[in-house]
Amino acid sequence: MISDYLAFFVELPSSFKDIGSVIPSSRFLVNELVKAMPEKKEPIRILEAGAGTGVLTKKVIDLIQKDDEFHVYEINEKFSKHLEKLLGDLNGKASNVKLFNSDIRELKVEENEKYDVIFCGLPFMNFPPELVDEILEMLIKSLKEGGTLAYFGYLALPKIRQLYVNDKEKKRIKDVLAVLDKYKAKAKNSRRQRVYLNIPPAHGTFLEL
Ligand SMILES: C[S@@+](CC[C@H](N)C(=O)[O-])C[C@H]1O[C@@H](n2cnc3c(N)ncnc32)[C@H](O)[C@@H]1O
To answer: What are the phi and psi torsion angles at 108 (to 5°)?
Structure first.
């Protein structure tokens, strides 16, 4: 746990735009997000985009069965090494987990490889709206019908940021929020759950296809 925080702090100065948070998600937020896992008897396929130091990854590994498949994408090389060690330390318990030290945009999914659940930890509010659109479109296309995309964001932060940034940045934030709303509107169901016990307080958002 301490090593998770250390790995985060060390990477922050060089990669803040990609990381988008000062510490890993709390267990309260993680526990909320994993409610997206279906209660199913048949094997399921799960994807995580932006695993960081693996707080959610560990929880998902605790919940999956041996026939399930879990793919984990992390762009940052140091975090990927940290994740590789974490998976190795699980002594075979993670044999159905595949780690990709890669941009999530490298993901290629055939029709029969779509996922039941996709967890997305990417810091959308730091990205240009076009990138958020590209990634969300790709993730939604990679979900099975009836599947769930779960992602998180920080409560009130986008509004607070808009108070002290320049006009260009204000527009970027507004446009990112509009892209997120567009995908919420496209989903069969969308719901948002607040989680105050996180730094900063967050929401889990769930889009069901
Ligand atoms: C806010 S952190 C979330 C980490 C972890 N899921 C958590 O909840 O604590 C975002 C993570 O997304 C990764 N990331 C950013 N852009 C990415 C991309 N295009 N593809 C894959 N991972 C990416 C960052 O390196 C970082 O580890």
So the answer is: -125, 125
